[in-house]
Amino acid sequence: MSEGELKAVDGLSYNVKKGESVAIVGESACGKSVSALSIMRLIPYPPGIIVGGEIIFKGQDLLKVSETEMRHIRGNRIGMIFQEPMTSLNPVLTIELQLSETLQLHRGLDKNAAGEEASKLIKLVGIPDAAKRAKNYPHQFSGGMQQRIMIAMGLSCNPELLICDEPTTSVDVTVQAQLLEIIDNLRTQFGTAVILITHNLGIVARYVDRVNVMYAGKMMESAPTDVIYSEPRHPYTAGLLASVPRLDLPRKRKLQVIPGLPPNLARLVPGCPFFPRCKLAIEKCRQEMPQLEEIGPEHRVACYRSADVKELVRVD
Amino acid sequence: MAEDNVLVDVQGLTMYFPVTAGVFRRKVAEVRAVDDVSFQIKKGETFGLVGESGCGKTTTGRAILQLYRPTAGKVFFEKNDLCKIGGEELRRSRRNMQLIFQDPYASLDPRMTAGNIIGEPLRVHGLVKGSEFQEQVAELFKLVELEPRMADRFPHEFSGGQRQRIGIARALALRPKLIVCDEPVSALDVSIQAQIIMLLERLREELGLTYIFIAHDLSVVRYISDRVAVMYLGKIVEITGSDELYDNPMHPYTQGLLSAVPIPNPRVDRQRKRILLTGDVPSPVNPPPGCHFNPRCFAVKAGCKEAEPELKEVTKGHWVACHRA
């Protein structure tokens, strides 16, 4: 007996151009990871099901291709880096073997060639002494090193799209900077498009071209990176920016608190999900979810009050 | 520097943990979690301790509270050396110092109601009589902006932010003078972090608290702290005022750490000087000789591999442990 439906992702649309990097930003349980797993068709069924929509990858709807075809795309033309490298790597296989598996499967290399290619990849992500380290097991690497291996794995087949799901949440700041730098360099070098899923508005500013802000499974705002930071037009985006302590602003600036909690996705009411926490909410917000509307060049917002957001919070 | 308004005076605090091996648990090495750390905290001050994982910041906080008995060094709390006392005497002085934990999911007993969790310290220290208990607990609920009627609920019925408020209320129950906040916001969602930070600020002003604020997030530490100590591999590498630390970081590690913190403003971020530290933090079992930071340092010079730099006062109130400072 199911207790009802939970809409983890609801009516989400966005696109990623070739070689572009796009961020999906949101708090825990806003549906950002589910949306990425859907692209890879990795949503476990049951209980999960993609009820509707299209995922067009180079003109082809990924929701319509067969499972066999999907296997040729997954890990090959679309790579993925997961959040926790220690749980994503197999503890009983050497790094070389784990990297070779994809190479043998998708690029048809034989065992020796795959092994050589694996060492090259390990070197590419900045692990010294690559040939020797390839024979090691995951537990012999630090968290940062393990995540480098995950990056190497995600990139092993020169994918056209790389999905990074919170790639740096489990590592320290200095290592975070190193990892993001590696991903960014490889993107420019190979022209890979990147989807970066994160809750950290800071890392987004430095590394992506476009930002999509999600809340309770819905897209709230989408804009080029510079625009979203200087002119946020959704109260949630503006609220997030005004609520974090920042190194570039005076220390004793008062933080603007977003009151309340993110909603329970199983008990969503009609209307805008942010409405109970929104300072600008009006009666209409309670009744009907606003549509995403184009309000500037490549700037879309789902809010009835987007014109008044500027008065609400001064970000800098 | 023996001033009257010093609440905590830490002198040469050292905490080693043994690494054992074999059936006889023979000691084969030592983890030098905290190694000869000294600082003073004034009454009403917020003192930030910042560094990457494994740098010893949490151990420092716990060793001050005597949750670990330090290997060496002294911790004076209002002129009383906590390392020398024990038993009942230590238990009584614990009333004055409390701890807020990082993980609000793991630090609350799932089988106790919120009211009993918050009130437990009062019972343990025998500070309330029957009828006053509910009243005092209700007071504490209000203090952290929770509804007193929620006292009968269990931890799982609260959100992460609310649980952290319960943890704070429990720490406040004994009206302590010092609270060690160990990563109190890092497990929370971004929109909830600001709520907790503002709550801690308000409580400090209203109750005249002194905080040791431990965190890895430099923007949060700078915001809440008056002074900040940067730790690396069990040592303090730099101590100074929060604004000075950001405007004029002197230790190469601090510079690298600050540069690695992304700023949510692309225009400012692009113009910043970028320092990318290479490699990982080495193991505290076998720290590099000389300055512990030398293998990752971009400004390393000949002497750095031989001699360990002393923490020196370079300008007034700004202490740095670097041969180049």
The greatest interface here is:
A-B, 43 and 44 residues
Radius of gyration of chain A: 21 Å
Distance between the termini of chain B: 22 Å
Low-confidence parts of chain B lasting 5 or more residues at pLDDT below 50? none
**What characteristic shape of chain A results from the CA principal axes?**
globular
User: Strand share of the residues of chain A?
Assistant: 5-15%
CATH topology of the largest domain in chain A: Rossmann fold
For the biggest β-sheet of chain A, the strand order reads 4-5-6-1-7-8-10-9
Strand content of chain B: 15-25%
- The helix fraction of chain A, in percent, is 25-40%
Gyration radius from CA atoms of chain B, angstroms:
21 Å
Which class best fits the helix and strand makeup of chain A? alpha/beta
Any idea how many domains of chain A? 2
Oligomer: heterodimer
The averaged pLDDT of chain B comes out at: 91
Explain what this protein looks like in three dimensions.
- The complex is a heterodimer of chains A (316) and B (325).
- Chain A contains 13 helices and ten strands.
- Chain A is α/β, with parallel strands linked by helices and 316 residues long.
- Chain A has two domains: 188 residues, P-loop containing nucleotide triphosphate hydrolases (Rossmann fold, 3-Layer(aba) Sandwich); 82 residues, no CATH class.
- In chain A, the strands form two sheets. In chain A, strands 4-5-6-1-7-8-10-9 form an eight-stranded mixed beta sheet, sandwiched between helices. In chain A, strands 2-3 form a two-stranded antiparallel sheet.
- The model of chain A has no long low-confidence stretch (mean pLDDT 88).
- Chain B is of the alpha/beta class.
- Chain B has one domain: 3-Layer(aba) Sandwich (Rossmann fold), CATH 3.40.50.300.
- Chain B is built from ten helices and twelve strands.
- Chain B has an eight-stranded mixed beta sheet with strand order 6-7-8-3-9-10-12-11, sandwiched between helices.
- In chain B, α6 links the parallel β7 and β8.
- In chain B, α3 crosses α4 and α3 runs parallel beside α5.
- Chain B starts with 5 loop residues before the first strand and ends in a 5-residue tail after the last strand.
